Amino acid sequence: MIDIAIFNGPNLNSLGIREPMVYGGTSAAKLESMLVSWGIEAGFRVVFQQFDQEGQLVTAIQTASEGCQALIINPGGFSHTSVAVLDAMRAFNGPVVEVHISQIHKREPYRHRMLTAGGADVVISGAGVHGYLSAIETVKELLRR
Known about the structure:
The chain is α/β, with parallel strands linked by helices. It has 5 helices and 5 strands, in the order βααβαβαββα.
C-alpha cells in the first residue's frame, strides 16, 4: 500500500465550528475519517496530521518526504506568508497537491496571494472538503505517470 501524507495547517482543527458559512459544517474529526476512507478506496494509507506551528509543519513535510510517496497539504494561513513551508514543499520527494476548502480568490485580497502554491504540482480551491477527494484522485493520477 502506498503512503500519502495529508497535512492541515493552523486553525483547521476548528472545522465545523469556525466560520461554517466559509468552511462548511464538517468537523475536523469527520474530515480525518473521510480522508482515511477515501485514501483506502484509492489504494493509499493516509498519514494525517494538523499543525498550528509553522516549524512543526515544515519538519513534518521533511520527514514525510522520506516515507510517503505524495503530499496533500492545506497550509491554511501559512499559504500567504511562509517561505519555509514553500521550501519544504518544493523539496518533497513526490507529487504535492495543495488544497483550500474555500475559494480564496473570492475572499479578502490578502488571501489571493498564495505563496505556497509555487511548491505544489496542483492547487485545488473552493470545492469544500471534497477538494481533498479530488486531491487524492489527482495524486493517484500523478503517481501513475
